Every structure is written in structure tokens, then in C-alpha cells.
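@channel sequence for tomorrow's demo:
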Amino acid sequence: MQQHADWRKAIFECGQHIVAFDGPDSDRDLLLIADNLPDSPWHRQQQILALLPQSWRHQVNVLAHTFSEWFARVTPLALDIALDGIVLYDKTQDLLAARLSALRRQLSDSGLERQAIGKHEWVWLWRDKPQRRWRLEWRHNYAGDDA
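C-alpha cells (generated this afternoon):
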């Protein structure tokens, strides 16, 4: 990981804290999108934790992806972040904001909704059964058309 150049692309806060389930023992969940991350998830975690103040290390969970990994496919975490995530840092010239906005439109248009199934548990369900094949994807065209 580069020590002096700005290797971070974006940081989001996500998780239970964001959706009003913040208790005294709650930790903070962060998604880091960055360049030059180690291939090994273990090494990524170790390098990122080393950058945090010691007092934060048991209060913050950091999930790290490269830009290409994050945009390889739409995951349930991406859907959650599109709805609830808070952008703490973004050096993508609004690319992430545009893609998350397009993803929110796709969710609304498709009728896919997140519903609570228990305390602190959610599932993605259809408002109505889809009448055709469907697919959620990161859109590369942000002018409002469906190209």
C-alpha cells in the first residue's frame, strides 16, 4: 500500500450504526475502496488496522476492496450502501455517487426492497414477482438513460 500518495478512493460508513441500531457496544463498519491493496484479505486487514489509532482497533471494522473488485458485481452490501451508506471520503470525481444513485433507481424501478425479518436482520425481496428476467448492475452511463 502506498504510504505517501493518496491511495484511498472512497470511504463509506455502513452497518447497524447507520440504520439506528447503535448501542453502547456497537462498533463502526467502514467500507474502504482503495488502490494497491494486498491480494490477501488478512494482509489487507493488518495493513489497514496498523493505520488506525490503537484505541479504534476494536471499535472499527474495515472491509477493503480495490476499485475493480468493488465494481465487478453488485452485492447485497452494495445495495445496503446505496440505501444507507454515508460517504465519508470520495476522490472518484463523483463516479461512486453517480453509480450508487443509478443503483438506487434500479432498485426502485425493479421493485426490489429490503425488508426486516427479525431484530437486526434484513432480506432483499420483490415487491411484485418480476415479469421478465432481471439483473442489477453497475451502470456506466449516468445521463439518466438505460444504456
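heads up for whoever presents: Residues 8-126 form a domain with the Beta Polymerase; domain 2 fold (CATH 3.30.460).
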